[in-house]
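Hi support team,

I'm filing this because I wasn't sure whether my run with guanosine-5'-triphosphate finished correctly. The job status page said complete, but I'd like someone to confirm that the output block is well-formed before I use it downstream. Pasting the exact inputs I used:
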Amino acid sequence: MKISSAEFLVSNSEVAKCPKDRLPEYAFIGRSNVGKSSLINLLTGRKDLAKTSGKPGKTQLINHFLINKNWFLVDLPGYGYAKVSKKSKSVFQEYITDYFLQREQLVAAFVLLDIRLEPQKIDLEFLEWLGVNEIPFFMVFTKADKVGTQRAILNVEAYKKVLLESMWEELPETFITSAVNNYGRDEILKKIQEINAGLPK
Ligand code: GTP
Ligand code: MG
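And here is everything the job wrote out:
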């Protein structure tokens, strides 16, 4: 898919205030610092569209980016950043939960996972929460430039194994990305394009 326009529209801390347009949207979620904002910049081909930082906790609001004037990418704050709230060790901010539970325009979530790490409790809990709440999602492994191919394969397989051994009968589709090497962009955009094409007009 060609990205002909990508513009920041609005930031919100309440799902009720998010854009009222009935455009399809895709949300990017994962632990703080996993690379959500960087991935949005990679996908849109705009280096500074979403604010990134080496320090966790950079994105604090629900940010809507209008793409090609007909769908949204949504950048969300990360979970698992202790400074954000007392509860955030196991649960993430309430307005994020509200976003996922209430936002009817949400087509699918892209859950970002650091490819360097073995399956993390907080990520597994979050994936399970999405499953229980019947929110469609994909898994995106980030920072592929930081590991060798062997380690990358092992860590992706480890996640799949844990999911299959717990509650999952079918695995979500997975993507491997690197915002440094521009890796994985086309696959994710192609997926979004396919889904958009199949949505009722
Ligand atoms: P919060 O908004 O704090 O939740 O973080 P985030 O998930 O949006 O992460 P962000 O995109 O701000 O990136 C965090 C740090 O990781 C930054 O220093 C990025 O440059 C770095 N980073 C993101 N993606 C990649 C990647 O693919 N490879 C490498 N090597 N670094 C990356
Ligand atoms: Mg961010």
